Every structure is written in C-alpha cells, then in structure tokens.
Amino acid sequence: MPEGDAVVRTARLLDRGLAGQELVATDFRVPQHATADLAQGIVVGTVTRGKHLFTRVDRGDERWSIHTHLKMEGSWHVYRLGSRWRRPGHQARLVLTASDEQAVGFSLGIVELLPRDREADPVAHLGPDLLGPDWDPAEAVRRLQQHPDETIRDALLDQRNLAGLGTIFAAEACFALRLNPQATVASAPDLTALATKAQELLSASADRTRQRMWVYGRARMPCPRCGTPIRTAQTGPAGRERPSYWCPVCQPEP
Asked: What's the pLDDT tens digit per position in 151-173?
C-alpha cells in the first residue's frame, strides 16, 4: 500500500493536471455514484490526510470533495486528452476530464463523493498526519504510549497513532534509531525521537521519486552499518501480516 509520501506526490500530480480547470465530464464507475455528474465544476485542488486523497470541486453553489484511497493496487494517472491509457479501461474507477487533461483513477480502493463540510468524517479517527499541517509529535507520542505492550512496528503502522506511515518507513525509522521493530512500545527509550525520525524520512521521500533504503526490501543483503545480512519476517496481527526488516546486530531482538 502506498505510504503518505506517495499519496502527497499523487496529489501534486492531480494538481498539475486539474487544479483551476473546469471539468467537461466526470465518470464515476462505482455503483453508489454512477449517476453523479460534476461537469462544469472547477477543480480547486487535491489535499491529503494520511493515505487519503480529497479532490475538491466547486460547482455553482455546491462544494464537493471526492474522497479516494489507493489501497493496495490503486493509482492515479493524468493524460493529455486523447492519449492512450497505460492501464486497462476496465480497471478505471473514476475519470475526471478537463478541456486538455484527463485524470484516471485505476483500481481505487475507495471512491466517495462528499459534501465539502463532511470531508473530515472518514478520517476523523486518524492520528497526526506526518505530512500534514496538523503534525504534532507530542500527540503522536501520547497515542503511541496508549499501547505499551504492542510491538513498535505495529504501533507505528496503526493509522490511529500516526497517519501516513507504512511498512517501508516504519522499518527505516526503527533502523535509524537502532530499535528492533518487534520490541514493545514501552521499551523504546525515546518515542519523540522515533516519531520525529519517521516524519523526517517520510517528508524527505515526498520530495523524491527514488529513495535509498537501509533495510526495507534488502533481505539477506549486508547491513549498511555493520555488514550483517538483513533479516525479514512476516509479522503483525493474524490475517494482516506484513514484511518486517531489521539488522540482527544493529537492532538486537528484545
């Protein structure tokens, strides 16, 4: 699943293609909004909250927000009008067409049309957004401390604690601070440093298309600090296991 950095880059892509443009056609290819029509609406812009996207459209006196989420396989593409799509048409869930540009959301996990004043409803449960204006490390730490017996990794991935973080930068933040991801939250010596490091890494990645990883995706490759082969395992709650990566020397097991 894309993390907050990729979601921010997606919002920037949509803004480059659509912000300030009038929509000449909209095609919601989901049953609950199959008859929705925002043609002649002006795209104000796209904002993010954690891993969620909200594309704001003003249509006369109406103020709408299109809520989308990429989940595991989703992506937004922007094309010059008439260009060939790079993914099959049957995967398109939403098409927003302006005079020269067309934004296509493929395999989106969520497509929801909301009145603007209800935009906050689907994300009200989220913790501080690492890439948002509401980022508050003290609040993030307070939420993490409410789960002292959880593993550091599981607590970091819980969007109710920190919004926007995923498996990649949870692994990278733990490595940077020499924390074993399977240690408990209560054992972490400095949660403020951990939250701050996660925010720094995610923020830096939001401004880059490529990021060199220290441990994530580097199973059995040498640790960049000590040369020990990186370990990996599927960890997390039953049914929601995800890969974890760590150096057994730099991040000793608890």
From this structure: 999 999 999 999 999 999 999 99
Instruction: Assess if residue 49 is contained within a domain.
Output: yes
Residue 2 catalytic? yes
Residues 6+ apart with CB under 8 A from 90: none
51 is catalytic: yes
CATH of the domain at 26: 3.20.190.10
Say what the pTM is.
0.95
Sheet holding 62-69, edge to edge: 42-49, 52-59, 62-69, 110-115
Which range of residues forms the domain containing residue 24?
4-123
Which H or E run includes 206?
helix 191-206
Report yes or no on 218 lying in a domain. Answer: yes
From the candidates 3, 112, 119, 172, give the one annotated as an active-site residue: 3
242 is an active site residue: yes
Instruction: Report the number of distinct structural domains present in the chain.
Output: 2
Q: CA 173, CA 182: separation in Å to the nearest integer?
A: 13
Among 97, 123, 149, the domain-final residue is: 123
Q: Which of 29, 142, 178, 242 is catalytic?
A: 242
Are 185 and 148 contacting, i.e. CB atoms less than 8 angstroms apart?
Answer: yes
